Amino acid sequence: MGGGRRGARWAAAVVACGALLSGCGGGDGWPTAPGAPSSVPTPPPPPPPVSAPAAVTGAPPDGAGDAPAPAPAPAPAPAPGGPGAPDGGAPRPPGPGDGDPGAARCATSALRAGVRNDPGGGAAGSRYVTVVLTNTGDRPCVVHGFPGVSYLGGDGKRVGPAAARSGDPGKPVRLAPRGAAGATLRMVNVANYDPKVCRPKPVTRLRVVPPGQTKALTVPFEGRGCAGNPPGDQLTVEALRAR
Questions:
Q1: If I label 240, which of 25, 111, 196, 226 is the partner at 20 to 30 A Cα–Cα?
Q2: How far apart are CA 106 and CA 133, in angstroms?
Q3: The pLDDT of residue 95 is above 50
């Protein structure tokens, strides 16, 4: 009987020990973390990030740095018909005459002087005539501005001051062979002046110097002029105009 009790207690102790071992060990013999499942799978590591290709900033490809810069565009040609452009072509340097850049200034040797009475050319105390210059050469030439005009006495000396200029110089006048230009000349009657101041003297010719020249032409002309220095101008001349 005593042996049966001992056997029963031994069996109970074995069962209790087995239960204790079952609660204290893992399925593979290794301890597990408290409260953690015994077989949780480990997640795989994330794939490495894919980097985008870097943008090219200003650096040329190999060998491109030696390429020549593009040539600048040629400047546009001047538009035809600009200022000073004859017949819509390239501009030309200003010539001495309108429409004839090749015509030279008229030399005294190529001109003849004359005097023409203007119809109704007179006013109170004054007389008006036209001094005419004619091209006697075989080539065109140009006159521009005022002629110099003065009285000459019988001795060839000048009588009184030369003519004063009146008005603007006008435009160049092209004279074809035998072409003419004229300038209006105003002559004051010497009787309007005090004889002591005027000192009247007979006049036999007019002395005419073409514009831009130094040599003079003479024109027969009879009258009287002041050899003194009267107030005002006894002679006044305008610019040459085409006739």
A1: 226
A2: 10
A3: no
